[in-house]
Amino acid sequence: MTVFDDRGRPEPPADGDEAATLLGFLNFQRATLGWKTANLDAEGLNRTVAASTMTLGGLLKHMAYVETSWFSRSLFGRPMGEPWDSVDWKADRDWEWHSAPDDTPEALQAIWRESIEGADALIAEAMADGGLGRSAHRVWPDGRSPSLRWILCHMIEEYARHNGHADLIRESIDGETGE
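That's the DinB family protein sequence above. Prediction below.
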């Protein structure tokens, strides 16, 4: 049975196996970003803090890119799909951050949620084909290849780091704070 906190986030299982625990923490971090970006208009999603150019809208689009990149391209060697495949990444390696202000809040939320749905399907596929130890298609220059376990831990770290940014930005918008 899934337990939800007062913000509607699924709590990681206290007694789950390795896969359930990793996925539980990843889903908790995903839900934290959902909470930090919920119910904001374009102005709110484009707000910056101090000298940073980071926005919550850019963060949503970046995490959509990261989800799709790791679980589609890196894990399985598959195309990422649109909008990612047609971007000239050499011209703008931070395109997802720079293009986010051109998107509506609804479009930003949709691309992020759709990337999670796709990532979850790919995680399930990988779990059925080797489990957490399944090697990714991606090979690093030294010949090593990360496992699904490594990718899940990396995604937890990626969300946790950016959720700290999201907390600061959201607080500057309307005072909303929390873990």
